[in-house]
Amino acid sequence: MNELLHSLDWVLPLRSETLTPVMRFFTLLGYEKFILFFLPLGYWAWHRSVFLRLLVLVAVTALLNAWLKDYWQDPRPDLALRMDHEVGDSFGLPSGHAQIAVVIWFWLAFELRRAWAWVVSGVVVAGIIFSRLYLGAHDVEDVLGGSLLGIATLLAFAQVQHWNWWREAHGLWHLALILLVFLAGWLTWPGVAPSYVPLLAGLMVGVLFGYRRMEFSVDVAVWRRLLAAAVGALSFILLQKALKLAGTAWALDPQLWQGLRGLLMGLFVAAVMPWTLVRLGLLKPVDKPEAEALAGSAA
């Protein structure tokens, strides 16, 4: 059993010049660069309440994944087997790619409630999980643990959505509870908490504030939604470059800067960019009664 969970000898014969680029593509779908790009695009051009829930879910499960990594401190496969060198010296169990892939793609399939969505999600999740084994970044135990934790997170989050007190509570209570989870993680962290803990906490504050303050609808022509996504994507890239320059220029405490950076990103995603896209006529403004109806359906 130990050999099955930790050995990657069976992967090596599968590697080829044809399959390697495919696996690199799938593994890219699980990295922070893609996720932080994909979630805002969905928020602006697809369904803001669905992607708000997804963003909260991803942030919480990412926190759990990082905490458990540092708690178990399980080493990754031997460096000689590794084809993905972006993981640095981080630990292996549970696999963040597997855990977050299960959460993102299966939650979207759950929200869509379409057979084709489950099929597509299953293919993407399987591709991401296998890519981590293929590239030597994780062993079977890592991806199995990440997958099971992703499923557990999904089941818990789906159950929370059925709680009347949660659905009817003011947004400030939602924010307070989410920040309490992050604070608990920070205070109990096994070692030094990584910088993305305040980043995610700041992101949550900015997004939830913007969600309540800036309502909009994507009930517009498809070309307008696609153009909104393109404008938003370009603006988001420029924001990241500006924040990188600001982080270099400002001599702030690293943890404080990450929290501020997350806050600015959250406000940009949920307030600044939607306001801009509405003013450009690419998204539809929502009046107060309609906004309240949308907020009720999002709970």
Automatic annotation (TrEMBL):
Q: Where is the signal peptide?
A: none
Q: Where are the transmembrane segments?
A: 22-43, 50-68, 115-137, 143-160, 172-189, 223-243, 263-282
The protein's matches in Gene3D superfamilies, at most eight in alphabetical order, are given as: Phosphatidic acid phosphatase type 2/haloperoxidase
Q: Which GO terms describe its molecular function?
A: undecaprenyl-diphosphatase activity
Q: Output the PANTHER family linked to this UniProt entry.
A: AT30094P, SPHINGOSINE-1-PHOSPHATE PHOSPHOHYDROLASE
Q: Which InterPro entries match?
A: PAP2/HPO, PAP2/HPO_sf
| Uppermost EC category | hydrolase
Which residues does the UniProt record annotate as the domain Phosphatidic acid phosphatase type 2/haloperoxidase?
A: 52-158
Cross-referenced SUPFAM superfamilies, in alphabetical order? Acid phosphatase/Vanadium-dependent haloperoxidase (SSF48317)
Q: Which reaction does it catalyse?
A: di-trans,octa-cis-undecaprenyl diphosphate + H2O = di-trans,octa-cis-undecaprenyl phosphate + phosphate + H(+)
According to UniProt, the name of this protein is undecaprenyl-diphosphate phosphatase
What keywords is this UniProt entry annotated with? Membrane, Transmembrane, Transmembrane helix
EC numbers for this chain: 3.6.1.27
| Transmembrane among keywords | yes
